[in-house]
Design the sequence.
């Protein structure tokens, strides 16, 4: 039986959610998933349908969501359904909903300098299959500074400051780029990469997403 994935896209169009959903749907189909793509948050209204999925992928920067819908997603993930996402589509979604942030494990707060070149450093001591065979790499995109749940398992980081600013007064810090988290029986995967679809031309960026989909799916 094929695994089932739901991609829900919308919100701020600057992150190209439609185009990103098409890339992710193609990756999932090559992995032999049945993929449903939706443009409405009402897709989170039916809790039992969500629980029958293997993977949920939100691509919805900012916006607002009903508390009931968040609770349904939380319950589905707790039951074992995977949750995976990237950039603002998962961890800058629904800024006013702290339950969403509790579930997903992080919240974007800044990207100093805008589009800049920076390095992604893979945690070499990690035994996660998500980063197996992937080395450090360079990207040119938004370098996300995120506030994170201390319970997450960090798989890759990036060093700040790359771009000068008042935050540089704190000295160098390594901010997570890729992490995983558990929620009940469910597994959660997140990557900060993905401002616009050109970043997926970097092999490692798309490979991390593919590996994360496989790992998180029930």
Sequence:
């Amino acid at each position: 039986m094929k695994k089932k994935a739901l991609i829900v896209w919308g919100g701020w169009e600057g992150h190209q959610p439609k185009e990103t959903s098409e890339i992710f749907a193609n990756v999932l189909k090559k992995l032999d998933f049945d993929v449903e793509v939706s443009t409405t948050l009402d897709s989170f209204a039916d809790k039992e349908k969500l629980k029958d999925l293997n993977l949920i992928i939100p691509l919805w920067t900012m916006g607002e969501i009903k508390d009931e819908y968040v609770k349904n997603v939380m319950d589905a993930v707790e039951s074992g359904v995977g949750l995976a996402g990237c950039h603002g589509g998962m961890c800058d979604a629904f800024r006013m909903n702290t339950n969403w942030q509790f579930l997903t494990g992080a919240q974007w707060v800044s990207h100093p300098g805008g589009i800049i070149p920076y390095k992604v450093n893979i945690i070499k001591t990690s035994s996660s299959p998500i980063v197996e065979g992937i080395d450090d790499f360079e990207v040119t995109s938004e370098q996300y500074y995120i506030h994170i749940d201390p319970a997450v398992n960090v798989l890759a980081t990036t060093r700040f400051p790359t771009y000068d600013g008042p935050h540089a007064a704190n000295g160098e810090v390594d901010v997570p780029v890729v992490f995983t988290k558990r929620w009940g029986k469910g597994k959660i995967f997140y990557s900060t990469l993905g401002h616009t679809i050109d970043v997926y031309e970097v092999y490692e960026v798309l490979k991390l997403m593919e590996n994360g989909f496989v790992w998180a799916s029930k």
